[in-house]
Write a structure and sequence with these properties.
Length: 358
């Protein structure tokens, strides 16, 4: 029995992060021949008391957990964010302890953001020098990790949320239920910069979009997947008398999307993934690289109508809806993505077998 320490982004206030963590953890725990122990990516999370004190006490927690296990797998989410120092420090701590205790270390299904800071980039770079193998969830993240790590062997894998085998059981409505997953303007510039749209123009585009959708007979509702988006979501809901949902974990996100809409428009990546896993028509809006890269990864043979966040966004979305265009994840593609995810676990098993770890 191989003992695996699985590190995921637990205790997040983002239901998309929890969808990833819950999905890939459930799959790993059900894998034959693995005994899985879990810790949060921010290694001090879940500890009572002062965060600063826990930052020190948590080092012992990491040491003991790594020592108990044969291998360490840090599994994303968007966990490579060099400008967020607490992320960079936690990543480096896990990597260093695994290296000192001579445990095989892997990163899998990782998202990476290109905006950096000197110290965060250095900590990630040092950490990646200690990993045995790395898998990124899209081509953009693979390039970023290779650049930070100064290596060229990062491999591609789907996002870890596609481990989810949950099935939407709700019957289709009358086809006019549309959910919008909003994205706070300041978040567009937090990790990456794909647009220079102003706050006023950005929010006006969405206000006008909702107004026109209602005029055209759409039954619109708002789904907030992250606490930072709540204020913008409430603005839209209050201005147009809409229902607002804020699911608090991955399963609740899937259930909310399943029950509340036929079409989903989202700038949040895992809002889109929840829509795809629920069999909905999705219209992706790209405020960051990861949304465009997502569809390049899961459907390279089909041109998916990913919309950029800029002026004219409202009119382009209305046109797509009028023409019946959007993306629906086929059962065959979903099965392929799951096979590709399992191939990552298989590669780790093969590497551990070569190291004599049974």
């Amino acid at each position: 029995m191989r003992r695996i320490l699985l590190i995921t982004h637990m205790y997040s206030h983002n239901s998309g992060d929890l969808l990833i963590s819950e999905s890939l953890s459930a799959d790993a725990e059900s894998r034959s021949g693995w005994q899985v122990e879990r810790l949060p990516f921010l290694y001090y999370n879940g500890m009572k008391g002062s965060k600063w004190l826990n930052g020190l006490l948590g080092l012992g927690r990491v040491y003991r957990a790594v020592r108990r296990n044969d291998a360490v797998v840090i599994a994303g989410g968007n966990l490579v964010i060099p400008r967020v120092l607490r992320f960079a420090v936690s990543f480096f701590v896990y990597c260093l302890v695994a290296f000192l205790l001579r445990r095989n270390l892997y990163t899998a299904f990782m998202g990476a953001s290109s905006r950096s800071s000197w110290i965060g980039g250095k900590l990630y770079g040092l950490g990646f020098k200690m990993t045995k193998a790395n898998w990124a969830r899209d081509g953009h993240s693979m390039e970023v990790i290779n650049r930070i790590a100064n290596r060229s062997d990062t491999r591609l894998s789907p996002d870890g949320a596609f481990f989810c085998t949950w099935e939407c059981q709700a019957g289709r409505g009358n086809g006019n239920r549309l959910a919008i997953v909003p994205f706070a303007h300041e978040e567009l510039f937090w990790n990456e910069r794909l647009t220079s749209i102003s706050l006023q123009t950005y929010e006006a585009q969405y206000q006008e979009l909702v107004g026109e959708l209602k005029e055209r007979g759409w039954d619109v509702r708002i789904i907030v997947t992250s606490e930072v988006d709540r204020t913008f979501g409430e603005k839209l809901a209050h201005a147009h008398d809409l229902q607002l949902f804020q699911p608090d974990d991955g399963v609740a996100l899937l259930e909310t999307v399943c029950d509340s809409c036929d079409v989903l428009v989202s700038t949040r990546m895992h809002g889109l993934i929840a829509g795809m896993l629920s069999g909905k028509v999705v219209i992706p809006v790209a405020g960051q690289h990861k949304v465009s890269a997502l569809f390049g990864m899961i459907s390279p043979e089909i041109e998916v109508p990913v919309q950029r966040v800029d002026e004219g966004l409202k009119d382009r979305i209305i046109t797509l809806l009028r023409d019946g265009k959007g993306f629906v994840l086929s059962p065959e593609t979903r099965a392929r993505l799951l096979d590709e995810l399992h191939a990552v676990w298989d590669s780790i098993d093969q590497d551990l077998a070569r190291a004599g770890i049974e």
